[in-house]
Amino acid sequence: MSGRLGIWIDGRPGDSVPSDDRGLQYGDGLFETMRVRKRQVRFLDAHLARLLLGCERLGIPAPDAASLRGEIASAAETTQGEAILKLLVTRGSGPRGYAARGLFTARRVLSLFAAPAPSIAAEGVALRIAGLTVAEQPRLAGLKHLNRLENVLAASEPGHENCFEALLLDTAGQVVGGTMSNVFLIREGSLVTPPVDRAGVAGVLRSIVLRESGKLGLRHEVRNVPGGELRVADEVFVTNARIGVVPVRSVGEHSYTMNGITTRIAAHVEALDA
Amino acid sequence: MSGRLGIWIDGRPGDSVPSDDRGLQYGDGLFETMRVRKRQVRFLDAHLARLLLGCERLGIPAPDAASLRGEIASAAETTQGEAILKLLVTRGSGPRGYAARGLFTARRVLSLFAAPAPSIAAEGVALRIAGLTVAEQPRLAGLKHLNRLENVLAASEPGHENCFEALLLDTAGQVVGGTMSNVFLIREGSLVTPPVDRAGVAGVLRSIVLRESGKLGLRHEVRNVPGGELRVADEVFVTNARIGVVPVRSVGEHSYTMNGITTRIAAHVEALDA
Question: Can you tell me the mean pLDDT for B66-73?
Answer without folding.
Answer: 95
